[in-house]
Amino acid sequence: MGKTHSDILIHGGGPVALACAAWCLQKFPEAKITLLDRNPINDADLAAADSRGIALSHGSKILLDTIHAWPTECADIHRVHVSQAGRFGRALMTREELHQDALGHIVRYRDIHLALRKALRAIQVNSPNFLWEHIQNSNDHVDHSAQCIVHAEGGLFKTQDWVESGRDYGQSALVGLVEVENAQPHQAWERFTAEGPLAVLPSHYGPHILNLVWCGSPESSAHRLQLSDAEFLASLQNEFGSRIGRFLKIQDRRLYELGLNYRKQITRDNEVWIGNAAQTLHPVAGQGLNLGLRDAFLLSEKLVGLFANAAQEPSPAQIQETLESYAQSRKVDRTTTIGLTDFMARIFTSNLAPVVLARGLALSALQWLPPVKTALARQMMFGRR
Ligand SMILES: Cc1cc2nc3c(=O)[nH]c(=O)nc-3n(C[C@H](O)[C@H](O)[C@H](O)COP(=O)(O)OP(=O)(O)OC[C@H]3O[C@@H](n4cnc5c(N)ncnc54)[C@H](O)[C@@H]3O)c2cc1C
């Protein structure tokens, strides 16, 4: 097989890798970039792929709009209702109090993936030095060398071939699409149950079809996956209550293991790790992809700054310096987002009486202290830059 040499070699073909390549090429079309993508070349072969609903922040929408990669099918969130099953404490956040058009948007993973593939193909037309190679299996060996290597291989908790710092919460998420009797359009619900968070989020299918993310112990979640539809709906109704009427139908149930796995160092010599390849988070706060897109955007700015302005090939020392400067610039956002998500995953999973009490108080404080609520919502929507 052949041999290639690029300025930038990106491993991965998920949203973060595609976005990183697209932002680099949009700013610097001459960039010598190779993208090694493990996904099939035809979009049709991804059709049955991951349909879980992902909450993207308004900040992510603004970023994706810059490369015309915002999926056409999405549902906006105007209100989020947070509560504890059977206990005191609740908070309501609305777009009006935060002066935003929407608090967030729910999009299927596969639609984000496809929209980014389409956006990158459009950018590729004007990028003479861009090579997008689909590697069908790990035995396909092409000798690739590059000045700088970006790792965006992503992955889910417990499926990654690296484990560094983190935590196993002993939780799984059961996701699916649920039809309900009486939903209010654009309303999201996050309810903290004895076993973990249960989120019911809008979908683009219409006001009565909602995305379900139900976290629980791996045993309960595996059991729920096996239940008949009628048994499942009854159990869900029991846990969620009657705020949105009866649960009528469930489809496309899938299970994901949840945990935190993150790298303390995200650069080494000429290599850098972004997205889930750098940090894999619990979905309780809906932050994983949002953080990964911010990684990709800021890395693209640093790489373009280096390669587009260099009169000659940058030296290894300049590359290392650029990547270290990138890592430094991501420190606050990464640390805050990882820390906040880990904190939420832990306090919203504990059944210890003092924690339950503190949780109720925290939710009440959120409700009654608008500046705290606004600060938290802003962090979730835009991160720290
Ligand atoms: C149940 C659940 C709900 C979630 N909800 C939210 C949410 O609401 N909001 C949010 O922001 N995030 C959410 N997330 C997190 C989000 O899914 C991830 O953060 C996001 O998918 C990371 O994108 P990525 O491109 O880094 O990795 P991935 O999405 O894992 O993509 C990696 C890609 O790289 C390819 N690949 C792997 N190895 C190689 C290789 N060696 N060479 C080439 N290609 C390779 C894979 O085939 C894959 O396509 C959720 C996660 C889960 C599990």
List the helices and strands and how they pair.
Layout: E1 3-11, H1 15-27, E2 33-37, E3 53-56, H2 58-65, E4 75-77, E5 79-84, E6 90-94, E7 104-108, H3 109-124, E8 130-134, E9 143-151, E10 165-180, E11 187-193, E12 196-202, E13 209-216, H4 218-226, H5 229-240, E14 247-262, E15 267-268, E16 271-273, E17 279-280, H6 288-307, H7 316-347, H8 353-368, H9 370-382
Helix pairs in contact: 1-3, 1-6, 6-7
Bound molecules: flavin-adenine dinucleotide.
Flavin-adenine dinucleotide binds near residues 11, 54, 175, 276 and 277.
Instruction: Give the low-pLDDT segments.
Output: none
Structural class, by secondary structure, is alpha/beta
Describe the biggest sheet?
8 strands, mixed
Query: How many strand segments?
Result: 17
Bound molecule kinds, no repeats: flavin-adenine dinucleotide
CATH C-level: Alpha Beta
Approximate shape: globular
The rounded distance between the terminal residues' Cα atoms is 42 Å
Helicity level: 25-40%
Q: Considering the protein shown, what is the CATH homologous superfamily?
A: FAD/NAD(P)-binding domain
Helical segment count: 9
- Rg (CA only): 21 Å
Tell me the series of helices and strands, N- to C-terminal.
EHEEHEEEEHEEEEEEHHEEEEHHHH
Beta content comes to 25-35%
CATH topology: FAD/NAD(P)-binding domain
Total number of domains: 1
What value does the average pLDDT take? 89
